[in-house]
């Protein structure tokens, strides 16, 4: 409730991966389901648990073909983080594939860089992949680093939004929500 009061109209996504950070995934999801707009989890098995409580579930980690199929059949949102993941998701041409594009804004773990976007967007032309959002993740609480990441993310978001229209943009982690409302974007 506190975070919703800070966020105003910005959607709230509860990241409940890894058994809700050890607090018990099902218990936490049942407590938060009327408060949050989305859940974010690591994998399909976690998504299946929290989907009882909230329809919009974002799976953060890349999935193999078997798990991608289960996720697609259940309407979960997958992270499109690499060209390898795109290849896996392209194997389901007759299915609705919901994704959020992951941008590497400096954490250097997963995601596309600015220079990857022209190729990515051209490859998405003939796919039945629905781009619902674009996101990154702050790697520090340092406001200078956060601002640099936000600037980079906004450049990437503009390119993707030009092609796909109004999509959900999110970058703020917990500390980002607390640091400044400029980081809230569409979802935090």
Top keywords for this entry?
188 residues, alpha/beta, 7-stranded parallel sheet, 9 helices, 16% strand
Number of helices: 9
- Derived from helix and strand composition plus strand pairing, the structural class reads alpha/beta
Compute the number of strand runs. 7
The helix content, as a percent range, equals 40-55%
Order of helices and strands: HEHHEHEHEHEHEHEH
Instruction: Characterize the largest beta sheet: strand count, sense, and whether it forms a barrel.
Output: 7 strands, parallel
Question: What is the general shape?
Answer: globular
Distance between the termini: 14 Å
Task: Output the strand order for the largest sheet.
Answer: 1-2-3-4-5-6-7
Strand content: 15-25%
Uncertain residue segments: none
Question: What does this 3D model show about the protein?
Answer:
It is a single chain. With 188 residues, this protein is an alpha/beta fold. The protein has helices at 2-7, 17-22, 25-32, 44-50, 65-73, 83-89, 117-124, 143-164, 174-179; strands at 13-15, 38-41, 57-59, 77-80, 97-102, 129-135, 168-170. The chain has a 7-stranded parallel beta sheet. The two termini are 14 Å apart. The model has no long low-confidence stretch (mean pLDDT 95).
